[in-house]
Amino acid sequence: MSTVVLLLVTGLGLGALYFLVASGLSLIYGLMGVLNFAHGVFLSLGAFIGWEVARRLDPSTWTGFLLAMVIGALAGAAVAALTELLLIRPLYNRHIEQVLVTVGLGLVGVALFEGFWGTDAIFISGPAWMAQTTEIAGARIPNNRFLAIAVAAAVLAALVLFLKHTRYGLIIRAGVENRSMVTALGIDVRRSFTLVFSIGGAAAGLGGVLASQYYGYVSAHLGQTLLIFAFIVTVIGGLGSLGGAAVAAVLVAIPQQLANYYLNGVGDLVAVLALAVVLLVRPSGLMGAKAA
């Protein structure tokens, strides 16, 4: 029983990381129709910048760690905004070029990270509480899993409040539903594009700091690794659906953890098979709008 509890809570922690990346992907595609293959760069950058900030202050203190989370999120948001302004905006409605540019940026980002921070993983530490465990039903759960879950829940709540109770949130939701109608009403939807990219980049950068604590290291390939599963989560949940991304993150991560433990490490295969089943049965995703 304790093993099952450990796997379930650890799966929720992993799902939290998937959601932090997938939420940005879902919002960006829902409003802008852009599949951003460079999204993993924002995560890796947030992880590296957060680590640099923490180690210069004191990684064992909460002050250093919390500031690392803030700076990591801001770094992700800043690079995401520049990406939208300089690379994506000139290529709207040119989907092949968008894919090529974002894939190229992803490859360049990894190369730059390797050139600056090296090709080997850098093992890190955090506040002492993060390395400790909490016992639940006989299972010793690493505390960093609880932090990831709490932050992801807070981000989900903040995004829902932003989308439902702010002017820009209303524009974004309306743009997701019918961009041409919003434009016909005299609202320049493009002004919100940069904001959406920034929000997605901030969530990814924040996820990068948490992922570095979850895995215990930072690496140039950390973002690209999580990006693969974030895309799976985004498609399963439904492109453009924030709630779908949250549900799918849990539905992907928990079976992945269980399969890795009980089926000798085939969790990644289970995630891919789940994607295949959803695409065959419900191509629009669990909570995505069905195509007319």
From TrEMBL:
<feature type="transmembrane region" description="Helical">
    <location>
        <begin position="99"/>
        <end position="126"/>
    </location>
</feature>
<keyword id="KW-0813">Transport</keyword>
<feature type="transmembrane region" description="Helical">
    <location>
        <begin position="65"/>
        <end position="87"/>
    </location>
</feature>
<feature type="transmembrane region" description="Helical">
    <location>
        <begin position="193"/>
        <end position="215"/>
    </location>
</feature>
<keyword id="KW-0812">Transmembrane</keyword>
<feature type="transmembrane region" description="Helical">
    <location>
        <begin position="261"/>
        <end position="281"/>
    </location>
</feature>
<feature type="transmembrane region" description="Helical">
    <location>
        <begin position="227"/>
        <end position="254"/>
    </location>
</feature>
<feature type="transmembrane region" description="Helical">
    <location>
        <begin position="6"/>
        <end position="27"/>
    </location>
</feature>
<keyword id="KW-1133">Transmembrane helix</keyword>
<protein>
    <submittedName>
        <fullName>Branched-chain amino acid ABC transporter permease</fullName>
    </submittedName>
</protein>
<feature type="transmembrane region" description="Helical">
    <location>
        <begin position="146"/>
        <end position="163"/>
    </location>
</feature>
<dbReference type="Pfam" id="PF02653">
    <property type="entry name" value="BPD_transp_2"/>
</dbReference>
<dbReference type="InterPro" id="IPR001851">
    <property type="entry name" value="ABC_transp_permease"/>
</dbReference>
<keyword id="KW-0472">Membrane</keyword>
<keyword id="KW-0029">Amino-acid transport</keyword>
<keyword id="KW-1003">Cell membrane</keyword>
<feature type="transmembrane region" description="Helical">
    <location>
        <begin position="34"/>
        <end position="53"/>
    </location>
</feature>
<dbReference type="InterPro" id="IPR052157">
    <property type="entry name" value="BCAA_transport_permease"/>
</dbReference>
<comment type="similarity">
    <text>Belongs to the binding-protein-dependent transport system permease family. LivHM subfamily.</text>
</comment>
